[in-house]
Amino acid sequence: MTVDSTAARKSRRSGGKRAVAKKATGEPELVQLLTPEGERVEHPDYSIDLSPEELRGLYRDMVLTRRFDGEATTLQRQGELGLWASLLGQEAAQIGSGRATRDDDYVFPTYREHGVAWCRGVDPTNLLGMFRGVNHGGWDPNENNFHLYTIVIGSQALHATGYAMGVAKDGADSAVIAYFGDGASSQGDVAEAFTFAAVYNAPVVFFCQNNQWAISEPTEKQTRVPLFQRAQGYGFPGVRVDGNDVLAVLAVTKAALDRARTGEGPMLIEAFTYRMGAHTTSDDPTRYRRDEERELWEAKDPILRLRAHLEREGLADEEFFAGLETESDALAKRVRDTVRAMPDPDHMAMFEHTYADGHALVDEERAQFAAYQASFAEETN
């Protein structure tokens, strides 16, 4: 796989002829290498050359990630999980960026980066423990350089920036990538992270998945400019990429990470995509958005787009697609079986590790809860 970029080494030229043309048609200014119809196109600033095997690998990643995500949603509806945040529609943004990272890079996710976790080698069943309420994360962040999910909106951008500053001080040539959504871009933590990253020239890539909705708030109620343009005010480049185009996301993210590794500082990527499902399983998107909007974006489905390209170029046959369907079924079964077999945590575990040296109030609460639990045993005797 080879990726070339000239634009990653300079700020975006938002006033160029290409930008004017985009504005004239009302379309977003973005990097695209694969049209919604699956046609390969070129971009003057970013290019990528992938083998047929690598293209099939990206397709496999997206299909299996979507199947896992759908299975998790179903498990929540069946009462097996307390909550689930679906990535439906955002597979290209996550797989493309995840596959752009190196093993020694460090990833700071939010709570929806199931596809990135897949790329980092985190077992998908480990993602479900927290949502089932049986652990506080389910994996060791240092095994895969993939931090635990962050529920607090935007805080991981600061964590990533601090980690990247440490990487620079250590003289390492690795990079850091922080994921957040369009809603999190309005948080003060993200603004502070931009400031520190710029001032300290930290090797961090800020990856914003703009899925158009911060729960029920549309993007236009959060910003008066495209999100990627915010980077200019902090002194580093930003770029908007077609978030449903896995090839473009891969090319742009790899270029941004390479740029960070060579000491050229931070960069903001806005992956322009769409959340086809609910914000979480506790949300009802029909209350605030139209069916026509979803149908418009379903025509830009990232998986169908790459499949059309594979079929158009004769890079995959029916045997490949059938085998992948069998693999998807096996993954779904493993997810179901693993979740239902997860042991319940010790009821008293919630009181552990709250204070390093213990605390009188926690001790009192522990004793009260133990007595409460014991009362049930007494009633059954």
UniProtKB/TrEMBL annotation:
Cofactor: thiamine diphosphate
Gene3D superfamilies in the cross-refs: 3.40.50.970
GO BP field: branched-chain amino acid catabolic process
Region entry Disordered, spans: 1-45
Species of origin: Streptomyces luteoverticillatus (Streptoverticillium luteoverticillatus)
Annotated Dehydrogenase E1 component domain residues: 60-340
GO-annotated molecular function: magnesium ion binding; oxidoreductase activity, acting on the aldehyde or oxo group of donors, disulfide as acceptor
Biased composition (Basic residues): 9-21
Taxonomy, superkingdom: Bacteria
Record keywords: Oxidoreductase, Pyruvate, Thiamine pyrophosphate
One Pfam family this sequence matches: E1_dh
Protein name in the entry: Pyruvate dehydrogenase (Acetyl-transferring) E1 component subunit alpha
InterPro entries recorded: Alpha-ketoacid_DH_E1_comp (IPR050771), DH_E1 (IPR001017), PdhA/BkdA (IPR017596), THDP-binding (IPR029061)
